[in-house]
Structures
1.
Amino acid sequence: MFYIIGLGLSDEKDITLRGLEAIKSSTRVYLEAYTSILMINQRRLEDFYQKQLILADRDMVETQSDEILKDADKEDVSLLVVGDPFGATTHTDIILRARALNIPTRVVHNASIMNAVGACGLQLYNFGQTVSLVFFTDTWKPDSFYDRIKENVKLGMHTLVLLDIKVKEQSEENLARGRKIYEPPRYMSIHTAVSQLLETEASRNEGILSSTDTLAIALSRVGGGSENERIVAGTLQELRDHPSAAFGEPLHSLVIVGKRLHHLEVDYAETYAIKRDSWRDVASRVYGCALD
């Protein structure tokens, strides 16, 4: 059996009992380590699960999946992923590869940012399409995410923006020269995300994202009741001007608040507002939310 097991969002104790049983029965256990990160190191996982973990980087998961799936039709093999297994298309792909090889598969679900985002007080029913925001470079500034946000804005829906991470990435020079030298890990900050959003708005000039009239909520390390969890709400400009330390450690996510904003959402998220008066003013004046 090939198991793909969600680890949740916080630490080693977020594993489900079903997931832990599958790990203990497996002859090999891989830890996928590039679509997201846990808040703890690998050793703590190994001590808790009482299993040695094989680190699976991008190359192994995407181009060497046969190594992971080897003999999984005869014995139990597990692939551990942060969050929920279906939080990244990479994991869907490896399940399809296993099925093509007639290997029985089983998915063990867990919490992911897709549902833990509700911690900010916005109702999950009011979210539209989720988008990913990648690091801009001097020569590459993809803006397809803007069209998805625009579609959500027109429907009044909230948008969850997943911020880029760079793990085991090569510079253009090292890639061109075939040198296996990797850059230090990078995790997109809220400041970078907001700056790129507003830069794209200035380029597209379609009035979708306003620095002063668009509400947003920044999230860091949500899930599992972590003491490192941070939630900060405000306009895009307020988030851009806020001290970077206030957003906490990565990973970060950002929510663009939609116009179908309910007064209970305003009241709940107000707890996290940089400026409560500003938060309520924009919610009432721009979003048309009826507040007491």
2.
Amino acid sequence: MSRPTVAIIGRPNVGKSTLFNRLVGKRLALVDDQPGVTRDRREGDAELLGIPFRIIDTAGFEDEDAASLPGRMRAQTEAAVREADVALFMVDARAGVTPLDEEVARWLRSADVPVVLLANKAEGRAAEPGILEAMALGLGDPVPFSAEHGEGIADLFEALLPHIDREEEEEAEDDSPDAPLKLAVVGRPNAGKSTLINRLIGQDRLITGPEAGITRDSIAIEWEWEDFEGNMRPVRLIDTAGMRKRAKVEEKLEKLSVADTLRSIDFAEVVVLLLDATRGLEVQDLKIADKVLQEGRALVIALNKWDVAENASSLFNGVKGALDEGLAQVKGVPLLTVSAATGKGLDTLIKVAFETREAWSRRITTGQLNRWFERALEANPPPAPGGKRIKPRYVTQAKTRPPSFILFGTRVDLLPQSYERYLVNSMRKEFGFGAVPVRLTMRPSKNPYDRE
């Protein structure tokens, strides 16, 4: 049974994202004094006094033309209310009821969804007039609350309980191949990340437009992909804010957005770096790719806008060559061509993402490892720097995701990096790790005089 859904509604800067963060127990939504920080609707798993539910943080409700950015944001808010079991309408008790609050109330009264009226920032006597004004909105008595301090939780729970008290079977996440693929899409601003996700899921779930930097929060969307055999495979798609050069990131909000994107990389299994084919590969793209690999995540690179790319063959070969040179630690990262606008290549992209996760999660038995290890040492014996003999003894896998191995032996900490690369590359080829990050740690014998 699916969890009940609560949508937080209100004009800009009344504290919706602060409440969202409190209910999910994490700082997921960006919060700032500047109004209009939240643009796309954001979902999370929340719990209130032991009752679990889904919570949706929405953009501030504004009365703007539908074609404008605020108008497109409002459409996302309206879509969230249509999905919800209950709308949590938040007003600012200290500011009092505004004409925009009254407009939102009129809209909610006509909507086919129960409404709980929440008077936020209600701590202290200064909020009392605003609480009284909220009673005139025609949505019942307001619940006095402080999202910042958590005051009024019990009253909020009592108001929401009739709408969220539902038995549910918890979904267990695991590392099995049937678990949802956690797929983050990253890249520079305007590479087409939100457009790509909208095309995949078949709806305008994320706000898009010619303006650079529309996406600020990292937005997770549950989806199912039908593979080439007709099987439905669960995917958690994560749209992220565009990442510019650090020197150009000056606004506080953009710094928060970039930090949010970096956290999304941490939570992902596979990261798609989306490039703009009309602009080619830039230094910032390589820095993003390097960051993904340093974090141990599986990387897939996609050239978007391929339908309008010029000199396609030379462009592809040029990008591939630059990647091989710029990502020296990992050769052969998958490079695909896609069009978010037309949908071309997107099924192949998801297929490669699943295959890459499988390699990223692969475990090799100690027996298989050491049979390969003996052959690798025989084909290319380790050097003897300074005349000191190095004796690797055996290797074992410490963990997966990414595949991580420990090499035991005498003086193995003196092995040059070139020999470490030889072992890792040989391992990649032998066990089909492809271009996923592979970690190899040297563990020398505790006794420096250990000898056979």
3.
Amino acid sequence: MDAPYCGHAFDLFRNVYRGAHGYISLVVCLFGSVANLLNIVVLTRREMTSPTNAILTGLAVADLLVMLEYIPFAWHMYLSIGSKTNRYSYLWALFVLLHSNFTQVCHTISIWLTVTLAVWRYIAVAYPQRNREWCGMQRTIVAIAMGYLTCPLLCIPLFLAFEIQSRVALIDENGNLVQTELGKANHNLLIDLNFCIYSVVIKIIPCIALTVLSLRLICALMDAKRRREALTSGSKKTPRNLENERQTDRTTKMLLAVLLLFLITEFPQGILGLLSIILGRRFFHDCYNKLGDVMDILALINSAINFMIYCAMSRQFRTTFSLLFRPRWLPVPQVDNGVNHNHTTTMVTQV
């Protein structure tokens, strides 16, 4: 018998972490649900209107749906004290099937919008003169709608690959999630296609695109800064020009932080999925399956933490949040009215 790709240390790690995963994921989901709801409330205020913020709002909606749906799954799968037989009932199997499909669709939408965000920001920095035309609000709404409409179509192989099948074990009827006959046909062609779409199309290609866009964005930002310095050399910059430059830099840094978080959490999943295709089912069972809970929590953290990034790096986000939710007895925060709020290209980020 061939040695496993991943040794007993993986089994030990999975068993130890699995005992804590339910509690950790429940905390992350509860925090993420509230955080994404707050993101939506703040980003949809009239003074926050911009194409970038529209994409961030669409991203928050997709992440909120992931959080809300995972809560009952985590509770029943990891924390429920009731009979384990209930976990294998037909209704529970139906919920697991819907859970796997729904979360994959929502997470794919989140990935689509993250890539769109990177493209929009790159255009704003590299081609500022064309930004209003190429990345206006109307095209932004179309891009968001395309994500919500096309991502379910991209996940069709997942919908076709699994079904619920009733089996009798001892005296209990258990609902089991198994491969469909279509999924097993032609040497599991549909299953392999599903893995290929998941690992390559949904994970690796967006990660590569984000890496390239992020590097080009940094280079474009440095070039723009050098051009500004060359144009203003020998002349004194006005406070408004200085503030506008700082806003552009802070907006780009904030979005780069969002993109970096995405790469850290998504790229390893894509690599594991690709290796499952190349090395076969033994790698899937020896390694991929044992890291399933870890990949889940990484995806959940990625969906939950954007609120903290916005609060840390955007003064306008903090100010708007404070105006909406501060207690009445606290003083109203002062906003610099001399700042140029560019509602077409960026999320205003005064720090």
